[in-house]
Amino acid sequence: MASESGQSPNPSWFTPKRLLIIFCIINMLNYVDRGAIASNGVNGSLATCTESGICTGGSGIQGDFNLNNFQDGVLSSAFMVGLLIASPIFASLAKSHNPFRLIGVGLSVWTIAIAGCGSSFDFWSIAICRMLVGVGEASFISLAAPFIDDNAPAAQKTAWLATFYMCIPAGTALGYVYGGFVGSQFNWRVAFWVEAILMLPFPILGFVMKPLQLKGFAPSESEQALTSTETNVSETGDDDMLAEGQALIRGSKSTSKFWNQFTRFSKDMQELLHDQVYVINVLGYISYNFVIGAYSYWGPKAGYSIYHMNNADLLFGGITIVCGILGTLAGGLFLDRISSTISNAFKLLSVATFLGAIFCLVAFLFRSLSGFIVLFSIGELLIFVTQAPVNYVSLRCVKPSLRPLSMAISTVSIHVFGDVPSSPLVGVLQDHINDWRKTAVCLTSVFFLAAGIWFIGIFLRSADRYNGDDEDQSATVRREKMKPLLEGSSDASNQA
């Protein structure tokens, strides 16, 4: 991979496997934090008093700050505000700033914000810190997957993506345990401080190590563009043009930069929205996430109501964790086995989601708890097969320089139109029907919509644009982009 100086294609000590391990650890910490803030040990509860006058003190964040349930709910999703706003911004900035350095900036914000959560003194202070946690996470979410896609062996690209996304259910589960233990044994603030300490080496690494370059992005692109503009103007020999060019470049540099960023972002967004493959993929992902989001919120309550489970939280959590890890890995490995193409990815997405929907639907119709557990586990396993293929399509259906924005807009879309509105809408449906079994069946049926949308993708004209050169890159940059990104990546690809 070319460094920013352009002197060596093999920067720093990073190898593909080291990069994957580091990114998996970072992703795990992101989701450990999400699990921890939802755990009883960190989130806590309000003080309560019995009719006889015996009072029990509050615990955790809710008890210390005396938060009502609405405020407590805001804290659990406040990071989403920062994530949704900052993701497209970081993706756009990757065009003019080194993406590896942007990850370092984002992780720095994350570390400071997490430490701020542990030092917060009221609702507003911790709410603002949670929003900043989302800002910090945004750079990583947008840029990590393209780096993994660049450096994974050719025959294992989807498997590597699956390994990365497997950290989501694993990290969330670990967060529940970690938050519960630290919060009960020490203090909820300690849980955040330890997270900040564990993350601290990674933003430092992002700044002190020789930065990696992302395929599709010219080294120091913005500086080269300015130099090129000044050179072209001076070569004309026209004093008026030279003066005008210098005034444009130096006199209104900040305004020009902002306008260039905005116009570039607008152009890239138009290209994404006109890409039928990308739009179909994201629409299917939105429908899929609509169900997954409501499952995670209402699943235990529905299970308790339908099957009278005393341990509904533990049961649903356990099924989701195990099936999430196994299903995600299986999806990546299977797509690599049948050949990683966009068409095959859509086939896997539609078939796995359709079969998973059938098993989940029948599970909720089953009267016995044991039958429900078996069928729902199989359904969840099939449902989670989609995680690697759906992100593979988002990465490969666009040209390399659009991958960060592609991942950012995908993330924004599945939250804004998927899991964020699904929980309240399902609540409204349940209020109207007043039967959790029927509500769960209606919700699960949306999986069939996702499967149908992804089925359409099989018949679209799709091309893997990973090796396609961006039209606005020079011949020199195009040659540079074809060099191995990390030491060992070329060999690994050949061996695979």
Helix/strand order, N-terminal first: HHEEHHHHHHHHHHHHHHHHHHHH
How would you sum up the major sheet? 2 strands, antiparallel
Strand-pairing-aware structural class: mainly alpha
Helix content class: over 70%
Shape estimate: globular
pLDDT average, as an integer?
A: 80
* Spatial separation of the terminal alpha carbons: 20 Å
- In what order do the strands lie side by side in the largest sheet? 1-2
| SS strand fraction | under 5%
How many extended strands? 2
Which regions have little confidence, pLDDT < 50, spanning 5+ residues? Answer: 1-11, 220-237, 470-484, 487-496
What is the overall number of helices?
Answer: 22
Radius of gyration: 24 Å
What does this structure look like?
- There is one protein chain.
- Helices cover 76% and strands 1% of the residues.
- It is mainly α.
- Strands 1-2 form a two-stranded antiparallel ribbon.
- β1 (48-49) and β2 form a beta hairpin.
- The longest helix is centred in the middle third of the chain and has 32 residues, at 276-307.
